[in-house]
Amino acid sequence: MNAAAFQALAAFWNAKYQLLPVDPKFSAPIANVTVPVGREGVMTCTVHDLYKYKVAWLRVDTQTILTIETLVITKSERIAITHTEQRIWQLRIKDIRESDKGWYMCQINTDPMKSQMGYLNVVVPPDILDYPTSKDIVAQEGSNVSLSCAATGVPEPTVTWKREGEKSVTSVENSGITSHDGPMLHIVNVQRHNAGSYHCIASNGVPPTVSKRIIVTVNFPPIVRLPSRQYHAELGGRVVLVCHSEAQPNSINYWMKGKGEIILQGGTYEKVLEDHVFKVTMQIVIRLEKASDFGVYKCVAKNSLGTTEESVKVYRKTSKSKPTENQIVQHSNYLGPGTYIKNYTENKINEILLTASAASSGVDPSISAERGFFLLMVLLLLIGRLQGTLDAL
Q1: Rounded distance, CA 258 to CA 271, Å?
Q2: pLDDT tens for residues 148-206?
Q3: How far is the first Cα of the chain from the last one, in angstroms, to the nearest whole number?
Q4: How far apart are CA 217 and CA 143, in angstroms?
Q5: How far apart are the C-alpha atoms of 232 and 313, rounded to whole Å?
Q6: Angle at CA 76, nearest 5°, toward 72 and 77?
């Protein structure tokens, strides 16, 4: 039924029921309504002094009558009408679609007809399209990478790029730039630290915000790092050699002795995948049982892009013998040139003291007391002179 038909029907009702000259009015304007797609939209028309007049709802752009009083005219099962005390008339549209957006009119069948309109706005949460949004990508280190994110929604959503862990979204590792606005993200001269997960986030104020994860893998030849390049141990001991490597794609890792002997046993191998980079730690215990066990060892990492190796050297440490208790070491830097003289003098002094002591005590009768006293005086004189000589040395 269109608007002209409604006018004719209103005139028929007026003539049939002989309506009194009451003048119904709208109590308030129809409020514009914004509804997310899929929800229920409710538009309210408030009147007073309606008496026996009728209220109808129409879709303005198509001039389609939706309801008259409590009767639903349209065939859509999503349309319903409710009212309260003949004053509040509510048009209800279930499962709102984008096509429901537009102007709606509330009419009173007076002559002339009275009407007012309200706008139903339909908003759509953001959605990220599978195409042309980028899929997971593999790139060579040093190349350029472009990521795209196609998002739809009403209103049009904004797109923001971020990385897990608030990492840089540029080729500069510590740039401090952790986000980028726009549907395209360009990374020039991509580096291994650019590998990882990138999130395309679309939002337009209508919940929920959506995102898609895109994984960037950066291929590069292996790199090898050694905590130490020199080890020292004695014959019969052992050393633990340690080597760290990174590569993408995954690398083959092993130890070599000298120029080409691959060591197949005695090592441990630990591999982890971190930020889409294979990181390997190798340890090997070298038992130094013979002289040939000392020398150069190589840590080797190899993948499809190249081979990298780094060398460590194990040196033999010799033990130093300790001097005996009574041994005199002739070394000017430690004892000085007076070492021999000093020891000889001490021995002669001890000999004279023993002789003088025997004479004074009468133990040896061959030595008189006068001779003992004379030896003691000579001894004191000798000590004084020798002390001066030693001080000069």
Answers
A1: 25
A2: 999 999 999 999 999 988 888 988 888 889 999 999 999 999 999 999 999 999 999 99
A3: 135
A4: 12
A5: 9
A6: 85
For the entire predicted model, the pTM comes to: 0.65
Instruction: Say how far residue 373 (Cα) sits from the centre of its chain.
Output: 95
Query: What phi and psi values does residue 349 have, to the nearest 5 degrees?
Result: -60, -40
Q: 80 in helix, strand or coil?
A: strand
Question: What separation in angstroms does the CA of 327 have from each of 87, 318, 324?
Answer: 124, 22, 5
Give the gyration radius of the chain's Cα atoms: 52
**Does position 59 have pLDDT exceeding 90, yes or no?**
yes
Q: Write out the two tokens for 101.
A: 């957006």
Instruction: Provide the 10 A C-beta neighbour count for residue 267.
Output: 17
Query: DSSP class of residue 260?
Result: T
44 and 30 Cβ atoms separated by less than 8 Å: yes
Sequence-ordered list of residues with C-beta below 8 angstroms from that of 62, at least 6 positions apart, any chain? none
Phi, psi of 50 (to 5 degrees): -70, -35
Cα 141 from Cα 219, distance rounded (Å) = 6
Strands (E), 189-235: 196-203, 210-225, 230-233
CA atoms of 314 and 234, how far apart (whole Å): 10
What letter does residue 114 receive in the DSSP assignment?
Answer: E
Distance of CA 60 to the CA centre of its chain: 55
Q: Are the CB atoms for 91 and 103 separated by under 8 Å?
A: no
Taking the C-alpha atoms of residue 367 and residue 363, their distance in angstroms, rounded to an integer, is 9
Given phi > 0 = left and psi -120 to 50 = alpha, else beta, which region is 166? left
How does strand 151-154 pair with strand 114-128? Answer: antiparallel
Q: Which residue carries 């030849």 as its tokens?
A: 221
If you search the block for the tokens 């000298």, which residue do you land on? 258
Counted residue by residue, the chain has a size of 393
The residues, ordered by sequence, that sit 6+ positions from 49 with a Cβ below 8 Å of its Cβ are 22, 23, 24, 25
